[in-house]
Write a structure and sequence with these properties.
Layout: H1 14-24, H2 27-33, H3 36-43, H4 52-63, H5 97-107, H6 109-118, H7 121-149, H8 162-186, H9 191-209, H10 236-242, H11 253-256, H12 261-265, H13 276-289, H14 298-315, H15 320-336, H16 349-359
Length: 360
């Protein structure tokens, strides 16, 4: 299949793909409908492989592409376990073509290989990342619904307030990074796949920055809030970026990380460099939100350092040849009186603001 970089996996034509698979697997109807006299001979070529656990995981990964919401680790939970003595007829799962294909692919190496030709590791990675992005978007939507309508009355678990939304977003980021790491270590992914994760992270960061407001300021329902409620519990931006709550030492690391920025800093620059303008805009936005009597947040400090390190590397290369070229250019300019035309590191808007304040 050709490289896929879009969101087309969220709407799939299951009959078409299953028809394609069945056309490529002419042995499937034979194995399923084989008369009992042929079962023994047909079963000789089918058995549980030594790497069956890996094969099961990879098969579920492939088939989960056609489920719009379930992640690979969630898909197929209703599938019956495969026994070591199952015959070809036992592979047939009543009323479930997906489970039938799953059981057949796990037991038959040829079927598995042909399935992998149709549904590549690249397809699976993109679909996985998009589902996690959609879960992050769903967290924002759930917060909007809670602010608009108030408690559902069914269960507090159904209500997404600021702390719950923040936790859901952090969990999505953690799972996204885990998916990226595990997939990169097990297969070769294209640039479109690995940069997709950075794009999703920056999208989440930008959306949080756009929510610097008291969400309960104009609600139409009566909210039961504690008198000493922290202001951050009313503002998603404050909760995640400007004034995150203290976290217990025993909490998982993804609850302690600097929101989004630590995840980006773990990635090579080539995975997020195409997003440098968006990141610079976020940096300026955070700076504008910071009061004059406040120090910069940890998010701002880390993001500023990350951008500066990248721009310094790009616009001020440290190789001796580049340094000689720069010195030579400056010598020529001194002699001719011309201004430099050599590319320089761009000045961040926050830097311009601080420079202006020093000389005011």
């Amino acid at each position: 299949m050709g490289e896929v970089t879009g969101d087309e996996y969220m709407v799939v034509d299951e009959p078409a793909i299953y028809g394609l698979i069945e056309s490529q697997l002419p042995s499937l109807p034979t194995l399923i409908n084989a008369p009992s006299a042929q079962q023994a001979s047909a079963a000789e070529g089918i058995g549980i492989f030594a790497d069956s656990n890996i094969r099961e995981q990879q098969t579920l990964d492939m088939l989960s592409v056609f489920d719009g919401t379930a992640l690979p680790e969630e898909y197929g939970r209703a599938f019956a376990p495969i026994g070591p003595l199952d015959t070809p007829r036992d592979i047939f799962a009543t009323r479930s073509l997906a489970e039938t294909i799953y059981r057949l692919a796990v037991r038959d190496e040829l079927v598995f290989d042909r399935l992998r030709q149709v549904i590549t590791a690249e397809n699976c990675a993109i679909a996985h990342f998009i589902k996690l992005r959609n879960r992050a978007r769903a967290a924002f939507t759930a917060l909007n619904r809670y602010v608009e309508d108030g408690p559902s009355g069914n269960s507090q678990a159904d209500d997404t307030d600021i702390p719950r939304c923040a936790r859901n977003l952090r969990h999505c980021i953690e799972r996204l990074c885990q998916a990226r790491d595990s997939r990169r270590s097990s297969s070769s992914l294209s640039a479109a796949s690995v940069t997709k994760v950075a794009e999703i992270l920056v999208e989440i960061l930008q959306e949080v920055c756009n929510r610097n407001e008291d969400v309960y300021y104009r609600i139409s329902w009566e909210r039961d809030a504690h008198s000493n409620e922290p202001e951050r519990n009313r503002n998603l931006y404050a909760y995640l970026i400007n004034d995150p709550p203290p976290v217990h030492a025993s909490a998982p690391s993804w609850m302690k990380d600097t929101f989004v920025i630590d995840a980006l800093r773990q990635m090579p620059a080539n995975e997020w460099r195409h997003l440098i303008e968006r990141l610079t805009n976020v940096l300026d936005q955070i700076r504008e939100f910071t009061d004059d009597d406040e120090g910069p947040s940890l998010t701002y400090t880390k993001l500023e350092r990350m951008i500066q390190e990248y721009t310094t590397e790009v616009f001020e290369p440290s190789s001796s040849s580049a340094q000689r070229m720069r010195r030579s250019t400056l010598d020529i300019e001194r002699e001719s009186g011309r201004s430099s035309s050599v590319a320089r590191r761009p000045t961040l808007r926050g830097e311009r603001e601080r420079s202006r304040r020093r000389f005011d």
